[in-house]
Specification:
single chain; alpha/beta; Quinone Oxidoreductase, Chain A, domain 1; Rossmann fold; 6-stranded parallel β-sheet; about 25% strand
Length: about 350
């Protein structure tokens, strides 16, 4: 075991501050990574403040990690010292259940034990700690290669926000000849617009705010639809092949269902803390589908990174110092960021 400096909290009400993080020494197949950048996900805030009810303290968030390989176990074959790599939401899985065997580790029957933070560190026998830290040690099979042409800071959010949108877009066939809608233009939504456009789909943003129009079109949206305007929504009735909802607040889904074609699908990726209200009849009368999705498996996440490398896609970020994280959380609650915070980990020690 070795220790490094991290940033976390000791209870739900205490602001994040410097603390010591234990890491296991690299085992035979482990990669020790010097963390350069860590994206800030809304899940980090939920976890730090125990809003999901399972946080064990001290808690260290962070699962959008980009860094350089520092040390390697003797059996590692996939990476070399100095490689630019990433770590997302998972650092392990059972590797034996049906989902894991199919490369869908995000749906592992073992649940969330392999989470980057809030899971379980089997060597140290303690809850896992995330990427708000100097270093992390991860099995090589859960380490990802970052394309060299991408800005590493702006690539960090791809490890969660990027794959969260890429996976359903790929699974439900976004591409040429398909009309795809993205609800919300935050950290997740702006990635959805970029990716759907790059896949060749006719891409639309649903928003409640007129001031999102310019950004949405810059990111690749052909249509910007004000969801509160019934006449505007009616223009797009029964026209969408796929809609992805990124909104994490309670809102009525029924108006969006009416814009789907017969047998088309709406996918929920935003995670509201309260049940979503909606009328089931728009689903029934056109045999429409309502589905959910979380991140992607390791193979698909690497595929996403290579796709982003080919199309030069990264997140739009605001780079912050580590000591600005508490302010960033408050700003995130107010949607005061375009579109993702990312921490420069070189600032961890001041």
């Amino acid at each position: 075991m070795f220790v490094c400096t991290g940033y976390g909290t000791t209870d739900a009400a205490t602001p994040l501050a410097p603390l010591t993080v234990n890491r296991r020494d690299p085992g035979e197949f482990d990669v020790e990574i010097e963390i350069l950048y860590c994206g800030v996900c809304h899940s980090d805030l939920h976890f730090a403040r125990n809003e999901w009810g399972f946080t064990q303290y001290p808690a260290v968030p962070g699962h959008e990690i980009v860094g350089r390989v520092a040390r390697l176990g003797g059996g590692v074959t996939k990476y070399q010292a100095g490689d630019l790599v990433g770590v997302g939401c998972m650092v392990d899985s059972c590797r034996s259940c049906a989902s894991c065997r199919e490369g869908l580790e995000q749906y592992c029957d073992g649940g969330f034990a392999g989470q980057t933070y809030g899971g379980f560190e089997p060597v140290l026998q303690e809850p896992s700690k995330g990427g708000y830290a100097e270093r992390i040690v991860v099995d090589e099979n859960f380490v990802l290669r970052i394309p060299a042409n991408l800005d590493p800071a702006a690539a960090a959010p791809l490890l969660c926000a990027g794959i969260t949108l890429y996976s359903p877009l790929r699974h439900w066939g976004a591409g040429p000849g398909k009309k795809v809608g993205i609800i919300g233009l935050g950290g997740l939504g702006h990635m959805g617009v970029k990716l759907a456009h790059a896949m060749g789909a006719e891409t639309a943003l649903f928003t409640t705010s007129t001031n999102k129009t310019e950004d949405a079109r810059r990111l690749g949206a052909t249509h910007v639809i004000l969801s509160k305007d019934e006449a505007e929504m009616a223009k797009h009735a029964e026209s969408f092949d796929l809609i992805i909802d990124t909104v994490a607040a309670a809102h009525d889904l029924s108006p969006y269902f009416n814009t789907l074609k017969r047998e088309a699908t709406m996918v929920q990726v935003g995670a509201p803390d309260k049940p979503l209200p909606f009328n089931v009849f728009p689903l029934l009368i056109k045999r429409r589908n309502f589905a959910g999705s979380i991140i992607g498996g390791i193979k698909e996440t690497q595929e996403m990174l290579e796709f982003c490398g080919t199309h030069n896609i990264t997140a739009d970020i605001e780079l912050i110092r580590m000591d600005q994280i508490n302010e960033a959380y408050e700003r995130m609650l107010k949607s005061d960021v375009k579109f993702r915070f990312c921490i420069d980990m070189a600032t961890l020690k001041g």
